[in-house]
Amino acid sequence: MVSQEFVVKNPTGIHARPASMLTQLCASIPDNIKILTEDGKEGNPKQILSVLMLGMSKGKKITIQVEGDSEEESLEKIMKLLESFEE
Fold first, then answer.
1. 87 pLDDT band (50/70/90 cuts)?
2. Which residues pair with 63 in a beta bridge?
3. Would you say 4 and 39 are in contact if contact means Cβ atoms under 8 Å apart?
4. Closest Cα to residue 31, out of 81, 75, 76, 71?
5. What residues act catalytically?
6. pTM of the model
7. Which of 19, 10, 54, 8 is nearest to 35 (CA)?
8. For a surface tag, which of 6, 29, 31, 87 has the fewest beta carbons within 10 Å of its beta carbon?
9. Which domains does the chain have, with CATH numbers?
10. How far apart are CA 86 and CA 65, in angstroms?
11. pLDDT at position 86, please?
């Protein structure tokens, strides 16, 4: 398993549009993926409602965990997408 922390930089947080993009990417990845928030919530990024319920607003620290055969490559793709969310 690999994991990496990320601080949400998008001024409007991870709302519907970026959450949808994240869900689409994660759904295409065969590995097991979790998002953990600093306030103890856990979500499945392959499900849009799970992502939205995490309330990932600007400045919130999250941890992405990936476990599977291509976990390092998958984590890199997810982090690249999260970094691109700057409206």
1. low
2. 5, 36
3. no
4. 71
5. 15
6. 0.94
7. 54
8. 87
9. 2-83 (3.30.1340.10)
10. 22
11. 81
Specify the amino acid at residue 71: E
Q: Give the per-residue pLDDT at 11.
A: 94
Assign 24 a pLDDT band (cuts: 50, 70, 90): very high
* pLDDT tens sequence across 31-82: 999 999 999 999 999 999 999 999 999 999 999 999 999 999 999 999 999 9
User: Are 38 and 61 in contact, with CB atoms under 8 Å apart?
Assistant: yes
CA atoms of 39 and 79, how far apart (whole Å): 20
C-alpha span between 3 and 10 (Å, rounded): 21
Of 83, 13, 5, which is closest to residue 37 (Cα–Cα)?
Answer: 5
